[in-house]
Structures are given as C-alpha cells and as structure tokens.
Specification:
single chain; alpha+beta; Immunoglobulin-like; 4-stranded antiparallel β-sheet; globular
C-alpha cells in the first residue's frame, strides 16, 4: 500500500510540475535580455493630454486582462510644441507589451492639432502614429 501512495504522490508531483510549466509568466525569465524602450509624444499646438504607457511586463496575460491599468500608468500633462513628453522603460518582451497612447482631454477645438507618438526599442524606431485627437504606438495589433 505504501508503494501505491508513493507512486501516486510522484505522479501528482509530476503533474504539478507540468502545470507550473504551462502557466509560466509572460515576463522576464531569469537571464532573458532586457530591452530599452523609449516613448515620445509631441504636439503641434498646446494641448492637455492623457498618456498611457507600459512600464513593466505583466507577469501573465491573465493578470493584464484582469486589470490592464495596473500595468499601464497614466500621465496627465499639458504639452507644448517643441517640448516632447519622453519616458524610458525596460521591458523583456517589447513585441508583446511596449505601448504608448495619447489622447486629447476636453472638447475638440477649432485649431487642428496633430498628436504624435513614437515607439523606439533599443535605439530603433519600431512604430509611430498621429491623429487630431489621439494616437497609439505599439508593436502589437491591439
């Protein structure tokens, strides 16, 4: 009987190890290379903006889905032409997680404004976008 329990315990331990491997984190593994991510936002005319950006790799997709704002800080800024908003982050998986969005705050004005974002990973621009009320820069299609 002891031998049966020993085998059952071993099988349960093996199953637990396999499950742990399946639910591993999407973030950085020990020793995985980290990437320097730079987010830049600019405007043509003075504007009040909300800027969301990804500062860290979420541990899992489920964690991110449950509360995306936990992993996407927001800066509320008033930006002037010639004075960009710049933020640097370090991410293990920028293909999956690097993201910056900018949106105008308040009602639309008669002044046409271009809000621009730029996403730079390890010194190379990987995405840019612009729009009159908002823009999204990401390596992934959301």
């Amino acid at each position: 009987m002891l031998l049966k329990w020993s085998r059952l315990a071993g099988a349960c331990g093996t199953a637990a190890a396999l499950c742990a491997g399946v639910t591993s984190t999407a973030g950085a593994d020990e020793g995985s290379p980290m990437h320097r991510v730079t987010y830049i936002v600019t405007v043509d005319h003075p504007a009040a903006l909300n800027i969301y950006y990804r500062d860290v790799d979420p541990p899992t997709w489920a964690d991110y889905s449950h509360n995306p704002y936990q992993f996407s800080p927001r800066d509320d800024v008033r930006l002037e032409p010639g004075t960009p908003w710049v933020h640097e982050a370090t991410l293990a998986d920028p293909d999956r997680w690097a993201l910056v969005t900018v949106s105008a705050v308040g009602p639309a004005t008669q002044t046409t404004n271009s809000l621009r974002c730029q996403l730079i990973v390890d010194g190379a621009e990987v995405d840019h976008a612009e729009g009159p009320r908002g823009a999204l820069c990401s390596m992934r299609h959301w």
